[in-house]
Amino acid sequence: MSYLSYEPKDPMSSVLSVDFSSLDLGELPPVLVEQARLVWADRVRTEYQSIQIVGRFLIEALAAGEPLSVTRQVAETIDEEISHAELCGRMCAALGGRVPEPREVAAPLDDLHEVPVEERVMASAISLFLIAETFSVGYLRDLEERASHPVTKVVLQAIVGDEAEHEAFGPELLERKLRGLPEGKRAAWRAFAGRLVRAHLERAEKVLSRVPESERVLSRWPESERATLGLLGEVRLALLCQQTYRERLSPTLVRLGLEG
Q1: Which InterPro entries does the UniProt record give (predicted)?
Q2: What does DSSP assign to residue 95?
Q3: Which residue, 67, 211, 90, is CA-closest to 158?
Q4: What is this structure's pTM?
Q5: Are 8 and 76 within 8 A, CB to CB?
Q6: Which string of b and e fits 195-204 if b means at least 16 CB within 10 Å?
Q7: N or C: which end of the chain has fewer CB within 10 A?
Q8: pLDDT per residue over 102-145, tens digit each?
Q9: pLDDT > 50? residue 6
Q10: Quick one: what percent of the chain has pLDDT higher than 70?
Q11: Distance between CA atoms of 174 and 172, rounded to whole angstroms?
């Protein structure tokens, strides 16, 4: 979705009618349920911290004098991230887990006052709206496509639909801000993006280094039982990381002049 053609919507509308009580825990392996409780509780944490980061980005975008269309899209993103945190909390509760309170998951934000506001906007656009969102969409789409339980599927559909829009927002914003940028500054942002991407790929390679080459294919790790509750094993996650970079992120980075 282009932030120039934004239309308000209710991010919770697709899940308000979900009957979370239909998630019958008696039909699922106890070990898997316990793992799912921890994973969905941790997703509350990551979604809450996303609210914090996007909230700061909104202030930075306003301070940098970004167009109001950008402000509107970022404000909508904050609302969606709040809904995602609530959704993850409802899923955690439905699984019998303890939902963490905001004060337990809030993280201190880095002090960036000495960094020029324009650089903060660029850094956030690259790190959050481009790199982090692209990897996140890759993982969530894989889970949503394979989730067999209707509750899990609807929750994942609601989240991945919003995240896909966030993923589209980053390249649009960056394409405008990189236009006409001197090569020296573009090279600096290229190095910045490269460091962030390498961190993801190196974590994946560390996991896959313990896996024989012949086993490094997604078909070897179907994880259908895990997908029932929206879970990914570390090997499948690592393979998805590499696939998402190869098929989605790298082409975008190249198009933006942030890779190669």
Answers
A1: AurF/CmlI, Ferritin-like, Ferritin-like_SF
A2: T
A3: 90
A4: 0.88
A5: yes
A6: eebeebeeeb
A7: C
A8: 999 999 988 777 888 899 999 999 999 999 999 999 999 999 99
A9: no
A10: 92
A11: 6
> How long is the chain?
260
41 and 97 Cβ atoms separated by less than 8 Å: yes
One-letter amino acid of 164: A
Q: Any idea what DSSP says for residue 10? A: -
Contact 95, 35 (CB under 8 A): no
Over range 25-32, report the average pLDDT: 88
Task: Give Dmax (Cα) for the chain.
Answer: 61
Long-range Cβ contacts of 79-84 (<8 Å, 24+ apart): 79/11, 80/11, 80/162, 80/166, 81/47, 81/50, 81/51, 81/54, 82/51, 83/11, 83/12, 83/158, 83/162, 84/11, 84/47, 84/50, 84/158, 84/159, 84/162
Question: Tokens standing for 16?
Answer: 């308000």
* Side chain identity at residue 219, one-letter code: S
**Structure-token pair, residue 61:** 């975008």
Write down the domain spans for the chain: 28-109+117-256
Angle, in degrees to the nearest 10, between helices 234-244 and 183-208: 150
Angstrom CA distances, 168 to 14, 105, 124, 127, stand at 21, 27, 14, 14
Residue entry with tokens 């995602």: 84
Is residue 137 within 8 A of residue 218, CB to CB? The reply is no
DSSP label at residue 115? S
- In the numeric block, the tokens 């239309």 are attached to 7
Q: Say which residue the tokens 């690259």 belong to.
A: 126
Tokens 């696939």 found at: 243
